[in-house]
Amino acid sequence: MKKALTIAGSDSSGGAGIQADLKAFAANGVFGMSVITAVTAQNTQGVFAVQDIDPAVIAKQIEAVFEDIEVDAVKIGMVSRIETIETIAAGLKKYRARNVVVDPVMVSKSGYHLLNPAAESKLTALLLPLATVVTPNIPEAEVITGMKITSLQDMEEAAKMIHCFGPQNVLLKGGHRTDDATDILFDGNTFRYFSSPRIATTNTHGTGCTLSAAIAANLARGYAVYDAVALAKEYITTAIAHALAIGKGVGPTHHFY
Ligand code: PLP
Fold it and tell me: Pyridoxamine kinase/Phosphomethylpyrimidine kinase domain: from which residue to which, for each copy (predicted)?
């Protein structure tokens, strides 16, 4: 069985973060492992507290996994702060991690800063060059590029700019645009488009986490980047269609529908 590692934050309500990643790994046929960067107290209504894990303990988790087990793909989610980013970048380089999917998590849907704004440029400088695929949504792409993104043309331009930071592929997710939910995949040469129908649900907690984890699972299983993204898109679309009305707020996507 192929093995995928998520390096991300814990979501006590199980809809996003590490918990979503491990469910998405299982649902997509790979063995899941986790390095926890932060523990959040959250539910479907918001994030109420965050405890960042000591960078030395993050480094030890990375070492414990890579020294013992072959890692076929890595997904990176919530990275909180500069020291966490530096620790992860050093670990990925040391172990020559491959099939790395970076989800540049910045602000939760409920408005909580999961990445310290002071660390945004560090994420761009240290983690994007290590990425096989980086998966920004539009607000994240706006932070990375400094651009305002409204049209598909803007998305293409932003994808080109983000590609210059060093990732092999940029998947710019269009879900935040109101008129069109097209995602764009750019490999430095060609733009490919993914369109899926917009699903009428408010239960979308953890969609970004789930998509990036599914891409990592598919890369671990040996799919080429385009196919890994296309399959992950199908998966997240169905997971959103079956989203669960759990809790009083924004419910999670359903991993095993
Ligand atoms: N909590 C953690 C630990 C996350 O990593 C993420 C997203 O990446 C979220 C929350 C965001 O959840 P939401 O989909 O509600 O914005």
Answer: 11-254
Tens digits of residue pLDDT in 17-66: 999 999 999 999 999 999 999 999 999 999 999 999 999 999 999 999 99
How many CB atoms sit inside 10 A of residue 226's CB? Answer: 14
Which residue's CA lies nearest to atom 15 of ligand 1? 205
* 3-state SS class at 10: strand
* CB-based pocket (< 6 A), ligand 1: 8-9, 11, 16-17, 40, 42, 77-78, 105, 108-109, 114, 205-209, 250
What is the identity of the amino acid at 150?
T
CB burial string 118-150: b at 16+ within 10 A, e below: ebbebbbebbbebbbbbbbbbebbbbbbebebe
Instruction: State yes or no: is 145 an active-site residue.
Output: no
> Which residue among the candidates 2, 75, 122, 173 is catalytic per the annotation?
173
CATH architecture label of 3-241: 3-Layer(aba) Sandwich (3.40)
Q: What is the pLDDT of residues 67-102, one digit of tens each?
A: 999 999 999 999 999 999 999 999 999 999 999 999
Q: What is the DSSP letter of 178?
A: S
Domain boundaries, the chain: 3-241
